[in-house]
Amino acid sequence: MKSMLKLVLTSVALMVASVAQAGGGSYPIPLEKAKISVLDQASLQRGADLYAQYCMGCHSMKYLRVNRAARDLGWSPEEGVAHFQHIRNGQGKPTDMIETTLNPETAKQAFGSVPPDLSLQARLRGTDWLYTFLRSYERAEDGTISNKLFPGVAMPHILEGLQNSLPPAEFDAAVGDLVNFMDYAAEPAKPQRLMMGWWVLGFLALLIMLTYLLKKEFWRDVK
Ligand code: HEC
């Protein structure tokens, strides 16, 4: 019994230690929390537009189809094509994947590395990382660009124009929308999954009420 207890305590201690290490952050700067929700469809729509405008030129999202995204974001398939119109230089179809027209060879020559596919990036890095990354670019006095979270990143400061044209809070909100869309793209069923959770909880609450009433009915005459 005693050794069992010791085993349990040791494994709990190890678990706590590993969680603390994982959360302790080996990042150059602390991550900031992205306050986003994939249930906010308006935010997803704004994020998709920002994505199409600022990211699709270089990155693909090859696991997300235009008509699927359109359906989940509340657009018709044709509207979806219009929102992601860069696809195939304006010749897009609703069944296209959200791909970039940038040639990998050209990208390699220009940036030294091929921009990675962003379909699953929110899963890989986490939304807080993306939110912090996109807000951590800096331009030094001599004009050189750096990123505090990802020093030496080959990606230019794509959102610089947007950042300079918006008040800081609005820029943060825009980046939040963009990260929200990337979070959705990494798991298109996430909105349904979350909604399903609420339905299940509602159903269970109803069931508890009914069974409680039933129990009262059964025991009414038992003294
Ligand atoms: C001009 C081309 C270009 C555009 C436009 C662009 N990126 Fe990038 N991006 C790159 C390149 C190149 C890399 C690879 C960086 C490296 O390996 O150092 C990269 C890397 C990234 C990474 C890091 C991947 C990782 O974990 O290593 C993320 C995240 C990212 N881009 C997001 C975005 C988002 C979001 C947008 C739109 C706001 C965007 N990018 C627009 C070229 C671009």
Query: What pattern of helices and strands is seen along the backbone?
Result: HHEHHEHHHEEHHH
Annotated CATH architecture of the domain at 35-188: Orthogonal Bundle
Q: Report strand order across the widest sheet.
A: 1-2
Helix/sheet category: mainly alpha
How many helical elements?
10
What is the name of the CATH superfamily of the domain at 35-188? Cytochrome c-like domain
The top level CATH class name of the domain at 35-188: Mainly Alpha
Amount of beta strand: 5-15%
Shape: extended
Give the number of DSSP strands. 4
Low-confidence stretches: none
Molecules bound to protein: heme C
- Main sheet? 2 strands, antiparallel
What can you tell me about this protein's structure?
This protein is mainly α. It is 57% helix and 6% strand. The chain is built from 10 helices and 4 strands. It has helices spanning 2-24, 41-54, 66-73, 77-83, 104-111, 121-125, 127-134, 160-165, 168-186, 190-218; strands at 61-65, 97-98, 137-139, 145-147. Strands 1-2 form a two-stranded antiparallel ribbon. A two-stranded antiparallel sheet has the order 3-4. Helix 7 packs antiparallel against helix 9 (168-186). It is extended. Residues 54-55, 57-59, 111, 113, 115-116, 118, 121, 125, 130, 133-134, 153-156, 158-159, 178 line the site of heme C.
